[in-house]
Amino acid sequence: MSVDPKNMTHHVAMRDGLPAVIRPTLLEESQQDWQAHPRFAGKARFFMNIHRQLLNGADWVAATTETLLDVPDDDLVDQIDTLQLGQRAAHLLQFAHGHHEIEDHGYFPQFIRLYPNLEQAMTLLDGDHQVLDETLGGIETSLATTLQTPNRDTLAGLQRNAAVLRKIMHRHITDEEEVIIPIFLRHG
Ligand SMILES: [Fe+2]
Ligand SMILES: [Fe+2]
C-alpha cells in the first residue's frame, strides 16, 4: 500500500507512528543514538532545537488557553495581556509556517533527489504540513476573534484548535525526525 495523505489511517491526527510501508525505506541511522553521532552537532541538532521550540510553543498555547478558561470574563482582557497570548501565539504561527515552507521547498525536494526511496515518507510529511497549516489557519482566526471579543466562548474555540495543534505537532515532529535526522547525520 502506498502512502496517501488523504487515507485516514495515514492522517497525522489518526496514526500512532510512521506507516509500516515507510519503515523499510528509512536510513539505518534511524536506530542509532543520534546525540552520540559525530555529526549530530550540525543540522541534526539545529533542526531538533527548532522542533523543540515549535513543540514548546504549541504546548504553551494549548495549556495557557486551557488555564484562561477558568478566568472570569471581567478579568480575561488583563490576563490575556499579562500572559502575552496574542504575541506568543502569533509568533508560533509565523514560526511554524516559515519552518514548513523551508522544509517543503528547500529540504524535502533535496532529500528525494538524494534518496528516491524516501519519496513516500516525504509525501506523508508534506501531507502533514497541509493539515498543520489548516490548523494554524484555524488558530489565527480564533485568536483574532478572541482578542477582539474576549469571553469564554471565543476562548473555548481557540482552545479547541490549540489542543488539536498540540496533538498533531507532536505526532508530525516525532515522525519527521525519524525520517530526516538520519539524513542530516549522514551529510552533516
Ligand atoms: Fe520540521
Ligand atoms: Fe515538518
Structural features, described:
There is one protein chain. The protein is mostly helical. It has one domain (35-187): Up-down Bundle (Four Helix Bundle (Hemerythrin (Met), subunit A)), CATH 1.20.120.520. The chain has helices spanning 43-68, 73-83, 85-114, 119-148, 152-187. Bound molecules: fe (ii) ion (2 copies). One fe (ii) ion binds next to helix 3.
Features:
188 residues, mainly alpha, Four Helix Bundle (Hemerythrin (Met), subunit A), elongated
The gist of it:
The protein has 188 residues and is mainly α.
Name of the CATH class = Mainly Alpha
Distance between the termini: 32 Å
Helix percent reads over 70%
Largest sheet: none
Instruction: Work out the number of β strands.
Output: 0
Structural class: mainly alpha
CATH fold call: Four Helix Bundle (Hemerythrin (Met), subunit A)
Ligand catalogue: fe (ii) ion
